[in-house]
Write a structure and sequence with these properties.
The chain is mainly α. The protein has ten helices and no strands. The chain has a single domain (6-193), classed as Tetracycline Repressor, domain 2, CATH 1.10.357.10. The protein starts with 5 loop residues before the first helix and ends with a helix. This is Putative TetR family transcriptional regulator. GO terms for molecular function: DNA-binding transcription factor activity; transcription cis-regulatory region binding. It comes from Gordonia soli NBRC 108243.
């Protein structure tokens, strides 16, 4: 027989499952053109269920994008933790970021940049990614695996490239798919700072 402590666990699981489904939907189709009724129909739930998650469509979108970045960050860090050398950690990080963002459609990215709350979330996460790349490079410099480079500059350089990749600018100018662009960035960055 369920106890009273089972209810919050189920509720938390249900919320997480709904946000996972919302992420999948928004990544595939964007969100600007979708109403709460459209979202409810696509997820086969009631509008009331969605309004339990947020008071408005705008809040629902912002919470969903937050969930996406939080989940992606955990997946990226798992891959980094499994990597061995400093070079492998930087490569794993950049490739994992590319993989996490690969389901994002052009419509989603366009909507994300057009809506101030999600654009700000994106910018915060890009800044966090730059700091993380900086940390990984600084660790490699300290261990002697990388040349004595300015880690903050290398992180900023990576962040600028990542931002261009995520806005699909690299694809437009080079024809590279995002995943391949991240592979190229990882190779160029780690080759440039590796000890001879």
């Amino acid at each position: 027989m369920p106890t009273s402590t089972d209810a919050p666990t189920f509720s938390t699981r249900r919320r997480a499952a709904l946000f996972d489904a919302l992420v999948d939907l928004l990544l595939a189709d964007g969100f600007a053109q979708l109403s709460v009724a459209d979202i409810a129909a696509r997820l086969r739930c009631s509008k009331t269920t969605l309004y339990r998650l947020a008071d408005s469509k705008e809040q629902l979108v912002a919470l969903t994008v937050t969930h996406f970045f939080r989940t992606a960050t955990l997946a990226v860090e798992e891959r980094v933790a499994a990597a061995g050398s400093a070079r492998d950690r930087v490569i794993s990080y950049l490739l994992a970021v590319g993989d996490a963002l690969s389901p994002a459609s052009e419509q989603f990215m366009s909507d994300l940049h057009a809506f101030t709350p999600t654009r700000e979330l994106y910018e915060l996460n890009t800044a966090a990614a730059a700091r993380r790349v900086q940390e990984l490079i600084a660790d490699g410099v300290e261990s002697g695996e990388f040349r004595d480079v300015h880690a903050a500059f290398a992180g900023d350089l990576a962040a600028a490239a990542m931002s261009r990749i995520q806005r699909r600018e690299v694809a437009a100018t080079t024809g590279l798919e995002d995943a391949e662009a991240y592979r190229q960035l990882a190779t160029i960055l780690t080759t440039g700072i590796a000890r001879d």
